[in-house]
Amino acid sequence: MRVLRGIRRYRVMVLAIVVLAVVLLLHVSGMPAVGRGVATVFVGLFVVWTLVGMVRDVLRGHVGLDVLAVVAMVATLAVGEYIASLIIVLMLSGGEALEDVAGRRAKRELTALLDRTPRVAHVIVHPRSADADEIQDADVDDVVVGDVLLVRPSEIVPVDGTLLSETGSFDESSITGESLPVTRRAGEEVLSGAANGTVAVRIRVVRRSADSQYQQIVALVRGAAESRAPVVRLADRFAVPFTAVSLVLAGTAWAISGEPGRSPRSSSSPPRVRS
């Protein structure tokens, strides 16, 4: 079932692999003309599909590396390098598949962080009394600096605070990556997002929820998931100039060699030497 979902989600890449295998099989079987036809039809359809997506992106004000990919596919078909055109299709669809996998993984991690975010804080009504156990549940966003909170065993610390209890053990693996519990003493800072140990503790709030450590981590992860990587932005920025330079270089090589594609002379047969 998982494999079928992957094939359905990345069907273009899977289809490109199948078509490439079929074309190579036809080529070695002595039917290169049939393989050329199959490759031309498949790549042509892929080029049309990519052009439709490019037009949509241009209307949104975005021009990417698809320009160079389309030019490369059309050029390889024009000079008869149909296997190279299929490899370009596989590279492009494979790159999109990898980008989708990375995006889904980032979304899962962000969802896990959001699900773990505390939403309720136990505010101690009479914090001056050491024996007072009357608490009032409040939304984490309503907690203010100076409030005294009760963190029960195994609960997540809702906001950054200073430990009022004598000692406390906290699991900070989700924040720092430290696998072992960390012992904090009275007066030391306890970070939001840490999991309390087996004993209930009291903390005094030093930062509101929006300014606490865990919320800052969530904001960074959310921003990273919604933004494009710097290298991707750089590549998209120079996509059109790079395509123009590539066309100039290809045209110059064509003019000098007189051949639009690779030399038809086989490299495996050495030139004859006349006596």
UniProtKB/TrEMBL annotation:
Family from the record: Belongs to the cation transport ATPase (P-type) (TC 3.A.3) family. Type IB subfamily.
Bilayer-spanning residue ranges: 12-31, 37-55, 67-92
Assigned GO CC terms: membrane
Membrane topology, from the record: Multi-pass membrane protein
Domain P-type ATPase A: 131-221
This protein's UniProt keywords: Membrane, Transmembrane, Transmembrane helix
Keyword hit for Transmembrane helix: yes
MF GO annotations: cadmium ion transmembrane transporter activity
Organism: uncultured Microbacterium sp
Family annotation (PANTHER family): CADMIUM/ZINC-TRANSPORTING ATPASE HMA2-RELATED (PTHR48085), CADMIUM_ZINC-TRANSPORTING ATPASE HMA4-RELATED (PTHR48085:SF5)
Compartments, record wording: Membrane
Any one Pfam family match given in the protein's UniProt record, by short name: E1-E2_ATPase
Name the UniProt record assigns to this protein: Heavy metal translocating P-type ATPase
